[in-house]
Amino acid sequence: MNAPLPRRHFIKTSLAFSTLAATGSWSALAAPAPAPGVRLGGPTFIRTDDPEELAKECRRLGYGAAYCPNIKITDTDRIRATTAAFAKHDVVIAEVGRWVNLMDANPEQRKKNLELVTEGLALAEAVGARCCVDIAGSFNPKVWYGPHPDNLSERFLEAAVENARKIIDAVKPTRAKFCYEMMGWSLPDSVESNLRLLKAVDRPAFGVHLDPCNLINSPERFYRNTALLHECFDKLGPHIASCHAKDLFWEVEMNVHFREVIPGKGALDYTTFLQRLAALPQQPPLMMEHLNKAEEYAEAARYIKEVGAQAGIPFLPRTSPPQ
């Protein structure tokens, strides 16, 4: 299993937390009960590190949510500025992504990866993001997220539980969740395995990152994705911190091959997805991903909002973007 993280790493992180708490930079995040609706988000393509400009660009694109900008946990000034700017423009920071292999076969690399994800959760807590997310990892020695027979084993589950507990216990977040993204070939690969992880990790700060397309790994789930969506929200709904928006198309060949496509060009039931998502009181953001250029994200956003409009689902915030 992973080695303990260096004490100096947590001293540095704790000092950053103390500074943020002492200056009251979290007070801007206090908000009234959320109105029903969906917060859609995606990446921005503007070349700036200015938090004010980044938040304004999100609103210009019609987003109510954003991926966390690249910020170091020790950069408390930029954390405060980002928190203030995004709160001012009513844009929720959905997630801090830390895409590394927590099951890496190399002990030193595994230790570094655990430190990186722990710091990611610390950043999510400090900046007010809904979650820090990674995959649980892979035993594949060549591809960090690749398939391996033991990725569905009890050994994998036990290691994933231990890693999640270490990360959460090191940060002790009170707002941000730590989540494993669903995957088609490693745990959590189903609603039931998500429930097992939630019970086994046994930490209030452990949440669910919902990516229904990643759960669709068979013809049955492809054709019955409406039922799959209902199962996700029925059983995991209160634990969902953030979601990914994409779509799947069946590329017909001599074996099963699902290909990610722009939302609207595949088979995912977005009406059900949006209806169930809008009903959750914690308002998990819906973040578009894996597209190639700004025009594709704009096309995806138009489709998702059109489906929402037809179903009577509002997108947040409802106010016009500031000039």
How does this model look, in words?
- The protein is an alpha/beta fold.
- It has a domain at 96-310: Alpha-Beta Barrel (TIM Barrel).
- Helix content is 42%, strand content 13%.
- It is built from eleven helices and ten strands.
- The chain has helices at 7-23, 51-60, 76-88, 107-127, 154-171, 191-201, 212-215, 219-223, 225-236, 270-278, 294-310; strands at residues 40-41, 65-67, 92-97, 131-134, 177-181, 206-210, 240-245, 247-250, 258-261, 286-288.
- The strands form two sheets. Strands 1-10-7-6-5-4-3-2 form an eight-stranded parallel beta sheet. A two-stranded antiparallel sheet has the order 8-9.
- Helix 6 (191-201) links the parallel strand 5 (177-181) and strand 6 (206-210).
- Helix 1 runs parallel beside helix 4 and helix 9 runs parallel beside helix 10.
- The protein is globular, with a radius of gyration of 19 Å.
- Residues 1-32 have low confidence and may be disordered.
